[in-house]
Amino acid sequence: MNILPVDIRRGDHHYDILVGDLLPGRWLEEIEARAKSDKYFAVIDARAAAAHDIPARLAGRRGWRITVLPGGEDHKKIADYAALCESLIADGVDRRSVVAAIGGGVVGDLAGFAAATILRGVRLAQVPTTLLAQVDSSVGGKTGINLAGGKNLLGAFQQPEVVIIDPGFLATLPEREFRAGMAELVKHGIIADQDFFDRLAASAGFFAKRDPAFLAEAVAHSCRMKADIVGGDERESGRRALLNYGHTFGHVLETLAGYDGSLIHGEAVGVGMALAAKFAADRGMIGRNGVQRIVLALRRLGIPVCLDDLPQPLEGRGDWRKRLTADAILAAMLKDKKAASAGLTLILPADIGDCRARPGVPAAAAAAFMLEALAESGEMAVAPPTGRRYNNKETGP
């Protein structure tokens, strides 16, 4: 088992990320040993609850209370947050309690925000059961819910007592969500680790088999990178902003899709990363070969890079892509958390493993670029680069 320390220097808070074989019940023992509470409130994603028989495992355990919630971005709203808080209060939560978020990023964000705000804050443990949550949302203390105007516009920082990650949870994850989680892994390579990026790009077979040893190593490496960034910049005033690579464009897509399941976060981030790379190339920050390497790696791993790659709209929901007008894209960008009077701050690649913050980008210019680039989906399906090529031999991370 890997034990990865996270030290939040601003608040002098320490916790560990545990990555390894912790199923079926060792993760429970780790929470109890580290939190030492007499009241635990498990907030569980319904699919994870069923797939791993979690309520039955908790039922006979002293001090545990259970709430099962549906997953999906359409269940991360004010009404869902209020209902969860009311449920926790009714069940007797107090300031000695620990809220354990068990599930994907939606449950982690929702339960985390409840823990951050109920009684002005109770302790939190994160047990992510999806790849995206394991390498992204469970680490770093960001919690929040969506508003009609955009994603995670209501939130708080709440650092956990412990994060417990077992790649064994991923065995039952639907393929679409698994691939969406891979987008965040690749993102970490693009922003800060070219070697990690290259190894991921050459490892499609390991991902396809969901090889446990490969996944444990890849997830641990990614978490180690994020822990190092978050520890020195909890509130995103500096280096942590690099983790937003692909998210400004991606959040526009999520907002206009309406959080109804038509588009999931990792898919939006995949398209957002391809768009951000092309935006950087148009401004002379990165060569076209660099853009091709990014797009090719994403495509190799089955991660969307353009609208044509995305799943068809849900039956009966209409085609959200028809909402991608110039005015709608601009309005969504202006409501982004990273927008300011001086313009947007975009995270753009100068090379693989070297992303930089570019402040003061006019929202209108970014919106016009996005609309034009999305209309040119075929151009994102690039041929392999003519320069450095990937080794066809698959290797672990």
Sketch the topology as an H/E string, one letter per element.
EEHEHHEHEHEHEEEHHHHHHHHEEEHH
Report the strand count.
12
In CATH, the architecture of the largest domain is Up-down Bundle
Mean pLDDT: 90
Helix content: 40-55%
Sheet with the most strands: spatial strand order: 1-2-9-6-5-3-4
CATH homology superfamily of the largest domain: Dehydroquinate synthase-like - alpha domain
CATH topology of the largest domain: Dehydroquinate synthase-like, alpha domain
Structural class: alpha/beta
Ranges with pLDDT <50 over ≥5 residues?
378-396
- Major beta sheet summary: 7 strands, mixed
User: Can you tell me the CATH class of the largest domain?
Assistant: Mainly Alpha
Distance between the termini: 17 Å
How many helix segments? 16
Please indicate the count of domains.
Answer: 2
Break the fold down into its secondary structure elements and pairings.
Blueprint: E1 2-8, E2 13-19, H1 26-35, E3 40-45, H2 46-52, H3 54-59, E4 64-69, H4 78-90, E5 98-103, H5 105-117, E6 123-128, H6 131-137, E7 142-147, E8 150-157, E9 162-165, H7 175-192, H8 194-201, H9 204-209, H10 212-232, H11 247-257, H12 265-282, H13 288-300, H14 326-334, E10 339-340, E11 343-351, E12 354-361, H15 363-375, H16 377-380
Parallel strand pairs: 2-9, 3-4, 3-5, 5-6, 6-9
Antiparallel strand pairs: 1-2, 7-8, 10-11, 11-12
Helix pairs in contact: 4-5, 6-7, 6-10, 7-8, 7-10, 7-12, 8-13, 11-12, 11-14, 12-13, 14-15
